[in-house]
What does this fold into?
Amino acid sequence: MTMSSWQENNRSKGIKIRMALVVSLFLFGLCAVIGRVYYLQAIAQEDLEAKQTVVDRSMEFKPRRGSILDRNGKELAISVKAPSIYVHPRQIEDRDAAATKLAEILQKDRETVYKKLNPKRTYAWLARQIPPDVANQIMELKLKGVGLAQEHKRYYPQQGLAGQILGFVGIDNNGLEGIESAYESKLAGDKTKIMGKRDAQGRMMLTNEAPKIEAFEGASIELTIDERIQRVAETELNKQIEKYNAKGGYAVVIHARTGEVLALANTPSFDPNRFREFTSSDWRLRTITDTFEPGSVVKPLVLAAALQENTVNLQTRFDCENGRIKIGRYSIRDSHAHETLTSAEIVQVSSNICAYKMAQTIGREKLYQYYKNFGFGARTGLGVRGEQPGLVWPAERWAEVSFANVAFGQGFTATPLQVANATAAIANGGMLMKPRLVRRILDRDGNVVEQPRPELVRQVVSPQVAEQTARAMALVTVEGGTAIQAAMDDFTVAGKTGTAQKVNPKTRRYDHRMWVASFVGFLPAENPEIVIAVSVDEPQRVHYGGVVSAPVFKKIAEEAVHVLGILPVPESERWDVAPKPENTDGTAQSAEKVAARKEVEPQEEQVFDLGASTLSDVSGNVETNIRVDGGIRMPNLRGLTVRQAIEQGRRLGALPEINGWGRVVSQSPEAGEIWKEGDPIKLELLPATDTMLIAEEPALGSGE
Amino acid sequence: MSADVLATLAKQVTGKAQMAQREHKGWDVWLLFTVFVLIGLGLVMLYSASAVMASQRMAGHFHLVSNQLTKFGLGMVLLIAGLKIDYRWYKRLIYPMLGGVFLMLVAVLIPGVGAVQNGARRWFSMGGFSFQPAEVAKIIAVMYLAYSVSKKGERMGNFAVGFIPHLMTIGLMVALLMKQPDFGSSVILLTMMMILLFVSGAKVVYLSIFAGLGAVGAYIAITNSEYRMKRIMAFLDPWSDRRGIGYQISESLIAIGSGGVQGKGLGNGTGKLGYVPELWNDFIGTIVAEELGLWGVVLLVGLFAMFIWRGLKIAYHAHDSFGAYLAFGLTAMFGLQATANLCVVTGLLPTKGLTLPFVSFGGSSLIMAMFATGVLLNISKGAPDLWELSKADRKKHRAQRKWDRKRDRILNRRDDLRDKFDEA
It folds into this structure.
């Protein structure tokens, strides 16, 4: 009764069994699926994973590259938006037609475009960093598989200016030369990696949200270079090279106290916007990569060394052998014969023989040591790729004639920057500073991220010796010197010419037709601000540094004075280096005339014979210290070196507390305040900086 | 006297009906639960599989899922309809329904009426709504087979009675399906016919011969079509033409394998990034295995096993043999499709274009599967055939009305009798 009709059916049992049979077949199939999946996932997993098309993909987003600015914020290298065209060749429907159309707009060969549309590739750049109007034209075609991406293109608005310093970037905006390469990590900013998966069409699928790219923008590099000085240096150098049909030229401008490089010029100039049109030798920053024998420009260094070693003073007289001396089978000549010369005059008239004799007073070992101390034979560490150290043979390997050569700047090599920097040490009270190209590093909002400080390499000679040397160098640009063309109206210019012979690479001997005409100097000689070195490589017709390079020096110096606002030294403080009227009758070619002037000059030397001439004004102060009741009015100690400050302290009868190094920037008690005996004198010292220069300027006026 | 008999009969009938009402079981909740879990899992996996594609090529990442949800709503209507309509009506109306199916299968072949998609003319497209008659045909075919074998009963062993009519009907349907062409549905129909004939007691010898002939036919169909041949080759060695015809299956295997036993985690699969074509459709099993790992597959297979078990149970306890065959037939059809689909996805069978019932994206498939579920639930109620039971009543009513009409007619003609009758 409860059973329904079909259940009562006799056949039902057989049917049920058959149904169960069919169903168990399905269940068996389903179990097989589980077994199969287990096999695939547990046993064949590695195999299958290996077969997987790589799907993980990261994409690097390059943020906008930071700018390169000159010291006044003028843009030397900037990033501008530039559209780029990419293609997904597989999505292109009509390869032929697309190639024809694209080639026409891009003005490219149809074949090259056609090849780029090769459907075997999933993605290709068709044209990168093209003008916006061309990109618009392409996008108006509305071709499937053709897309536009905004990229940044590096642009150098000053074109050829400072090209070698800046360097350039490749198509992917990675710095390849110069500052672009050296400061790549700062300029490029933080590349951000975005993780994602690659889909079957090769497109990127982001798995996370894309970060804001602006946040990773590169820092800007503010160079120590002054665009205006650099420009004048390049133009004037080029003019002179054209005029003398020279092979090339170099100019280096350094800020004396800080070692900041204001200009580095060499020819030919190079436009980083079109770097491919130049050769790799044009890309080189030759002022640091090229070395040559510096020649007579090193004579002031020899003088400084001898003065420091106390083997000579400025009046020490040397026998100049009438312009010719034999060393073994070699003979050395002076361009103008002299009988005797004082140390100062050796620099003034650039006598090779007497420079050698002066060097002999300290010996070769010492000379070698001083050269090393002035930075020769070692990289300055400017921080740009390719800097050469130059070659200075150790003293024990010098033959006697080599010693003589080395004494007047032949027989060893140096870069123009090394020459300038060594001279800057003289200008900077004997302190050799590390030359620097980067003034500040700024983030995208203009905040200072990094500000390298001036770096003292070593004190090579004492400030007194440096000043004495400077005085000797000041004679070079006055009547009787070798570089009258470098003289300036309102400034005393200390300098030295150099006319170095080059070794002809073919004959491997000094060639009397191949010269490097140099002039290196600084101003104001009394209180040096800038050091300028100019060298002209292989000038034709005339090869004297005083004629070929000194005018360039003067042009650059005039611009620098104007640009930097260098104040002339008050008349009363200027060194009286001009020869006496009776000696200014002209060329000073004959030995007699030189000799006649020599007799005058010692008197002048008397004038600036300085026990401690830098201290003269200060010591004056000390003497005018009015003993007031219960104490002494503090003198102004600002600008003094440690040694000078301690000396001053002694005179007052106290040992000042010294903080830092360099020169005094602040004092306690202040100048003019009453100092009681037993009270501490605290002095803050800092390496010379711009701030200090400003602090010092009023002192110039107050000294009158 | 006759009135007495009738009264007794009527009493008997109502008694039987009341008794049946008492033993009337509730419908199978577990089956419905299983189906809902399958559909839910399907929607989740569908979203994971299609979101990337849909957001790139369609209205939005939710596009396919919302489409499927609409179909689910329609499916619910049909499920409830299936649950409410007594299944025996399908038996009674089988020939009109069969006729309707043939009409549809013919109509879909007419260009302009049937829409072409993926190279096959399979769809009716009306106002953005597409509909696949093959899905209906499968269900109606099962109904027809269940009706036919239950009617023939013991005579199924006879070749002419138990074999020829079914082969003719199903053969005609398959012929029409192959015109589309729809190889997958054809295979399912033929297999379903074999299964039901086997279950209902057809001679195994005939079935084997037929299976042999079918194999030969299939071989010819395959070798005649370069496309099917390639599919078989791809099945035998997916890696030989990995970039060509073997692409789908090899990418599916890679996706499954790279998931590992633990799976990559829901949403973390990479197959959906365009690597496995039709991932949301026929190959939805791939993403289950890739993202949910072996346990996901065990869950999926377990749900289908549950479905099959409940279906078999309904068939066993059906009220009549038609109900039993119909319940078994529907269960077997979805069990067969699920098994075949999962075997295809894992590379155990050649690719055939079969969806995974309840889970795959595909409107017609889901709607019809839900309707079939409704039918199964209706069978599971084990309700008595009220229509059949009230037959005598209806007959009596008809006879009464007939007699009334006749009497009126006679009385109209014979006034004498009318008076006499009135007197009586």
